[in-house]
Design the sequence.
């Protein structure tokens, strides 16, 4: 029964974002840009980094990273958002897009140096499951950027979820101007 509920929520989320694809940047772009810029202040990149953007949406993160890293993979459940992201990525050889469920990511364990999950958790049936999945593909010395909308999570609840997923907070921002909290984490084990 829980699996059926989870599948239904994910299908509804995909439909919602497919329907919003043409207006996504206009509706959410400014806030997403602000969260990304705030998070980037706390992370150092290397030209050899392989980065994952879970819930990449229209690819707002792409232009921030393309020149700073080796390769970026964008994942989203919405086919229409991925088409918008493909357009933004142009013909870049450094960016690849994959349609996938954030709870069943099609990647090897410990492959990504950095992972971004910006405005993803509130769309998931069980944020703890999602965080465990993401943690598994993050390298032991990697960094994870997670945001949680303030209307969906208290800062205590978000911190608890991160601890439950065996993630250690290295930075936490609760900027009053942003609609979400920004957590920078690494694996505990």
Sequence:
């Amino acid at each position: 029964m829980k699996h059926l509920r989870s599948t239904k929520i994910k299908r509804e989320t995909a439909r919602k974002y497919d329907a919003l694809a043409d207006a996504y940047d206009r509706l959410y772009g400014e806030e997403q840009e602000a969260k990304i810029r705030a998070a980037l202040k706390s992370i150092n990149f290397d030209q050899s980094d392989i980065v994952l953007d879970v819930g990449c949406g229209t690819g707002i993160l792409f232009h921030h990273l393309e020149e700073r890293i080796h390769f970026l993979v964008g994942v989203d459940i919405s086919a229409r958002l991925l088409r918008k992201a493909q357009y933004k990525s142009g013909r870049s050889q450094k960016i690849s897009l994959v349609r996938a469920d954030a709870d069943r990511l099609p990647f090897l364990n410990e492959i990504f140096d950095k992972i971004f999950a910006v405005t993803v958790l509130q769309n998931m049936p069980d944020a703890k499951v999602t965080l465990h999945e993401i943690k598994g593909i993050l390298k032991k010395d990697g960094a994870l950027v997670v945001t949680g909308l303030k209307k969906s999570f208290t800062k205590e609840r978000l911190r608890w979820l991160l601890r439950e997923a065996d993630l250690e907070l290295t930075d936490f921002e609760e900027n009053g101007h942003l609609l979400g909290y920004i957590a920078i984490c690494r694996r505990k084990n």
